[in-house]
Write a structure and sequence with these properties.
This protein is an all-alpha fold and about 130 residues long. The chain has one domain. It is built from 6 helices and no strands. α1 (about 5-25) packs parallel to α5 and α4 runs antiparallel to α5. It starts with 6 loop residues before the first helix and ends with a helix. About 40% of the residues are buried.
Length: about 130
């Protein structure tokens, strides 16, 4: 089953996935935000299939706001919207997108020694919840 994405659809997918990495970076321990963003970005650019082609580029011109709350207000609904869009067109690609975002979230927690912080754990839960709200 083919998938047809408009430029707006692609922007939604990029905003959702790259924004999830930004949320994890914002929730990270001081001094490791850059490492979290790097690890999460590598996961996104390693995606395959149609989703991999879309996520190979970060969204251009997206203004996430000044606070983590502003970022979450844009990204969490975009995650749900992306899953709805993909589930309508191609459930397998919806699964690919979900797994890719989850891997990016997990990768963003890797730079931390030991267990992720409670803040990162909670942010990961919110991201997963938004993905599963579709």
């Amino acid at each position: 089953m083919a998938i047809t994405l408009t430029d707006q659809d692609k922007l939604t997918l990029r905003t959702a996935a790259w924004g999830a990495v930004s949320l994890m970076s914002a929730a990270g321990v001081a001094g490791s935000a850059h490492k979290a963003a790097t690890e999460g970005s590598i996961a996104l650019t390693s995606a395959t299939g149609p989703i991999g082609h879309v996520l190979a580029k970060a969204p251009k011109g997206v203004k996430y706001g000044r606070t983590t709350a502003d970022l979450a207000d844009q990204v969490l609904p975009a995650l749900t919207e992306a899953m709805n869009l993909l589930n309508q067109q191609n459930p397998a690609e919806a699964g690919n997108f979900r797994r890719t975002v989850i891997v990016a979230v997990e990768a963003a927690t890797r730079p931390h020694h030991g267990e992720p912080s409670p803040t990162m754990t909670e942010m990961a839960r919110k991201i997963t919840e938004a993905l599963d709200a579709a």
